[in-house]
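Today's session is about reading a structure prediction critically. Students often jump straight to the picture, but the first step is always the sequence itself: look for stretches that repeat, for charged clusters, for runs of hydrophobic residues. Only then move on to the predicted structure, which in these notes is written as discrete structure tokens rather than atom positions. Here is the chain we will use throughout the hour.
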Amino acid sequence: MSQIHPLACVESGAEIASGVAIGPFCHVGAGVSIEEGCVLQTHVTILGPARIGPRNVFFPNSVVGTAPQDLKYKGG
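Below is the predicted structure for this chain, in token form.
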């Protein structure tokens, strides 16, 4: 069974496997698939489309699935 903190935002359309822990102030967008055993600590943002394999740990304030804050980035 997954543990999703009541202060986390998991959008409809996100797929969360059993054994996933999602901490407070996390945001999981639609189109995101998180496999078993993953841990999202606090203030983690994952936007889709994204597929996160099993047993990954995301540390506070990490962001996945968006453009970087690098001003030289031109898309990729």
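Discussion point for the tutorial: The mean pLDDT is 94.
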